[in-house]
Write a structure and sequence with these properties.
By secondary structure, the chain is mainly alpha-helical. It is built from 12 helices and 2 strands. It has 2 domains: 63 residues, Winged helix-like DNA-binding domain superfamily/Winged helix DNA-binding domain (Arc Repressor Mutant, subunit A), CATH 1.10.10; 133 residues, Four Helix Bundle (Hemerythrin (Met), subunit A) (Up-down Bundle). A hairpin with a 3-residue loop joins β1 and β2.
Length: 274
């Protein structure tokens, strides 16, 4: 045992030096901090679980996700890994790990020898996503109407009231609308359905022709929510399920309807404010 103490002390000293070095260079390419934690874990020959607030690739995945949703990275566009790595001040390793995460979510498509592209949704893709959302959320609405308690119904009522107040603020309405649907799924209590819908809603945001962008669709959606809330309040499970399914059918129709392109003269007049 006496012979092993100097080795343990040396390992501890090396670990401390590695951690200190990592803290002096926070912008290093993601590997220094990991090496420091690995060194610290090796003290006394033990293998310890490395704990960190959040892995770098996860932070990068979140930034890329936000850029895709904000259309800073357009659907169908090639993702320039070298430029993004330089912009983010990281190596390409955590960037590629982040792209793998987004590929699993369906937001990014990896093409052999061509790199990564932001997924572009066809009308067939949109129809399939809406079909699945309609099935899962109709089932959840029926379950909530049948089983939800007073407190849970009050939670949905509060979100619906917030939606009513945000009818003139599209971005706020979008955010609250998603909260409403995800809250309904949580109350229904099927965590697998909740997980699937979470991923499907991410993919749905790739659609260039979002259903709520259509003129008048936001007001129609709100009216459909009112009917749904009445069915839930009445405990009418079949009606709640039917109304939610119709809600997604109407959303699909709006999402797949491409706005007509005005004739050149009409477009020029519109630009001049005529």
């Amino acid at each position: 045992m006496a012979r092993r103490r100097p080795a343990a002390a040396a390992a501890a000293t090396a670990a401390a030096a590695a951690i200190a070095s990592a803290s002096r260079a926070p912008a290093a390419a993601g590997g220094v901090a990991s090496a420091a934690f690995d060194a610290a874990s090796a003290v006394h020959g033990e293998t310890r679980l490395r704990l960190a607030p959040r892995a770098l690739y996860q932070e990068v995945a979140e930034r890329l996700r936000e850029a895709i949703f904000a259309r800073q990275l357009e659907p169908g566009s090639w993702i320039d890994e070298q430029k993004l790595a330089a912009d983010y001040g990281i190596s390409r390793t955590p960037l590629r790990e982040a792209l793998k995460v987004l590929a699993v979510e369906g937001l990014v498509t990896m093409k052999v020898r061509r790199g990564a592209y932001v997924t572009e949704m066809s009308q067939g893709d949109v129809r399939q996503v809406y079909h699945l959302l309609g099935l899962l959320e109709a089932d959840a609405a029926a379950t909530v109407a049948r089983q939800a308690g007073a407190e849970q119904r009050a939670e949905l009522e509060a979100l619906h009231a917030l939606l009513e107040s945000q009818a003139r603020s599209r971005d706020a309405f979008f955010a609250t609308n998603e909260r409403f649907h995800m809250t309904l799924l949580r109350i229904a209590g099927n965590r697998w359905a909740e997980q699937i819908v979470t991923d499907l809603r991410k993919v749905m945001k790739l659609n260039r022709h979002h259903s709520l962008f259509k003129q008048g669709r936001l007001a129609d959606s709100l009216a459909e929510h009112r009917l749904l809330m009445r069915a839930i309040a009445a405990g009418d499970a079949p009606a709640a399920g039917h109304l939610m399914r119709a809600h997604f059918d109407n959303g699909l129709e709006a999402a797949t309807q491409v706005p007509p392109v005005p004739p050149p003269r009409a477009a020029a007049a519109a630009r001049r404010g005529l």
